Every structure is written in structure tokens, then in C-alpha cells.
Amino acid sequence: MMNKVIGIDIGGTSIKLALFDMTGLMLDQWSIPTNTANEGSEIPADIIQSIRERMSRGTQCLEEILGIGIGVPGPVNEKVVKRAVNLGWTNFPLKQMIEKSLNIPVALLNDANAAALGEMWKGSTEHVRNLVFVTIGTGVGGGIIVDGKILNGQHASGGEIGHIPVHSTEERICGCGNINCLECYGSANGMVKTMNRLADRSAVSNTKEIFDLIEADDPQAKETLKMTVDYLGRAIAGVMNTLDPEEIVIGGGVSEAGPLFLAPLRAAIDSYAFPQISGSFRLRKAILGNEAGMYGAAYQIVSTLKEYAV
């Protein structure tokens, strides 16, 4: 009988599940739709049923599962999901519900934090214990790992890099309610807003169009990129100067532009980093993509179990 864990990543449209051995080898992977009806009250039962069904097939059995890690789109503490707007949850006792039904320990974590742990565990080429993960997509998310542990914070809001306040001559209201958060300028949505403002019209609707224009030497697109990486560079350098991590990992849709985005971002961070750090930090693109959250959720359980075993 082999000890195994399950890593789950709950998204707005689908729930991704994977079975791992204790070394992080993925043995099986599947997904189910996210049922957000009735304020997401059906989701725990769907997860439980899906695990039971999958484990009753073939060679797997439920008794081999030592724990389940679950990444959730919102702040969590050790017991509840404090808030997951997309799912309709507030102080939702997800951990207790699944533990009670399956009689297997459950660990909850925020989805960006899960992705950060996944990248540390299976994405880094070196053995890394201190990492800052920044996901740049429709918003800007983050995860901070210190000495191998995720920094969740007193209010379950550790790593909210996208909400670092930035200085700007204009005012943009953030989804969180504050004005001029990094996310308003450093995200894909922020880039599109900046480009259309510079062009004084609706010139683009997504960042792919901006990067295509950059390759065609469009001055406004180039200025958009320069402004965007300057905002991000200042904020990320601030985090680096505070934590001095071993590695910065950039994920999310915008990172798919590769060197066209990462090279100027690196240069911007470099210009604001503390002299001791500048020029000698590791920055890389996230490599696990949509699987990062499942790996990280599984890692949270593996590391917890190892802690108790000591």
C-alpha cells in the first residue's frame, strides 16, 4: 500500500484534482465543473463524490490517501474560507465538511499561495526555500514563501502584492475598493487601459495585441510596456528589498509574452533593487501553468504530514 495525497485547485469554472505520491509525482488527474449555484453550497459534496468515485476505480483506494490540500480563490485561515466571491462563500467551513465526510485531514490555502508552493516544489531547478511568486493576469496576485512556508499573515492577506499602493497622475479604482493599487496598472487589464489612454481611443482589447504592436515598433505600445514594467518593477523591488528571496517567479497570462515582457521587467526591478541584490537575483517564468495550484495544495499536505512525523 502506497501513501498518497490529493491536491485540489478550485477555480470559478472548474475544479482540478490530482493524486500524488509523497515525492510529488502526479499519478492521476481529473476535473469537475464548479457548481456555483446556491452560493456554492454543492461544491463540497461534488468534491467528496468525485474523490470517492475516482478512488473506487482501478488500483486506487481511499485508505491510501493521507491528506487533501485545497487551493481556493480567496483568503483562508486554518479552519475556514473567509471569503471566495466567485463561489459565494463567506466563513465557509470547507475543511470540516470534507474531513467529516471522508475522514481524511484537509489543509486549505489561497490559490495564489498554492501556485507559489507548487512552483517552489516542482518548478525550481534548485532547492529553493525563499521565493516570491507574482502572477500577472487580469489582476496581479502573489505568494510569498519564507523558509519553505507560505506567508499567510494575520488577516489571511499575506502576499497581496497586487494591492501595493502606487503613485500615479490618474486615478483608477481597484476591484478591492481602494484607489491606485498596483493591479490597476500592472495587470493585463491595466496595460490595456494604459495603451488606450495613450492612444486616446480603443486601440486594443488585450495584451497580445499590445505585444504584437511592440514587435511592430509601435511607439505607444512600447511606452505602455515601459510604464507597466516601471510600476511592477518598483513594487517587486520593494518586496525583494524587504525579504531578499532566492527566486522571483512570474506567472499569469502576461508572462506568456516571454522575454519581450520579462527582460524589461527584470531591468526595471534591477534599477530599483537594493545594490546588494541588484544584478544578482534569479527571476524566471512560472513553468507549471494551470497545474501549479494542484502541486502546491499537495505540497502543503505533504509538508504538514512530515512536520507531524518528526
UniProtKB/TrEMBL annotation:
Alphabetical list of InterPro entries matching this protein = ATPase_NBD, ROK, ROK_cs
Q: Which Pfam families match?
A: ROK (PF00480)
Note the Gene3D superfamilies from the entry.
3.30.420.40
PROSITE patterns reported for this sequence: ROK
Give the record's family classification: Belongs to the ROK (NagC/XylR) family.
Name of the protein in question: ROK family protein
